[in-house]
Input
Amino acid sequence: MKADVDEALAADKQREDEKQNAGEPTTTKDKVWHEVVSWFWVILIFVIIEGVLVQARVIPSGSMEPTVLIGDHLIVSRFGFDAGLPFTSWHIPLWRTPRRQQIIVFRAPLADQGYPDFIKRCIGVPGDHIKITDGVVYVNGIKLDEPYTRHNDLAREMPSENFPIDSAELPFNDRPEWKEEIVKNTVNGELVVPPGQYFMMGDNRDNSNDSRYWGFVPRENIIGTPVLIYMSIDAPEDVWNPGHFGERFGTYFQAIFHPGEIRWRRLFHLF
Output
């Protein structure tokens, strides 16, 4: 009988030794600590990916059509552009800067609206001289080749299509001080982009709320550039606006049973 007890105790000790050698927690305290450390690494990886490497974004407007459509789901690379702490406003700009004609995600300089995130194309970098005549963009005196734009021929004579010459006729509802800044930064009929600032425009030129209406984008407002469309669903614009979680969930659920609403040919498109 005593031999059986000794054998059982020895077996238990052996199992404990094997757990310790394998790095498994043996007590409640060890198990709790093991769980805390596991979650710490999960959170740290999330912070690194979301705050420094990539973010997922959904397009709620048609200002970048036909390049980016309403309902496109994008992977945006922050690498080198910006680093921040997820779910907070804290961030710092990094070493990369936007290139001319590159698609950029940024915080629009609209304080009254809480600096919303916009996606546009970078048209002017620091030092550029910009002029728009009948919808044609000239940078530093050279016509910009823009096969990606969408225009309405009837809008060629609008103030937004003849900029900055006719800029005084534009509405400045979002940022009234931009009207004076245009005058200050216009030289010989061309808008000069100041140091550390960028001029952004949507590809859908006649339906885009962009730098023509509210001004330059500071370098510190740059978030990143899209690299991939991972999903695209044909749904109304309101579904993708912030706060419409119920409608958005319903759209995803409906797409499962109506796969025709998914724009399959746009999936995994690279920028």
User: Anything to note?
Assistant: Residues 18 and 53 are 40 Å apart (CA to CA). Confidence is low (pLDDT under 50) at residues 1-5.
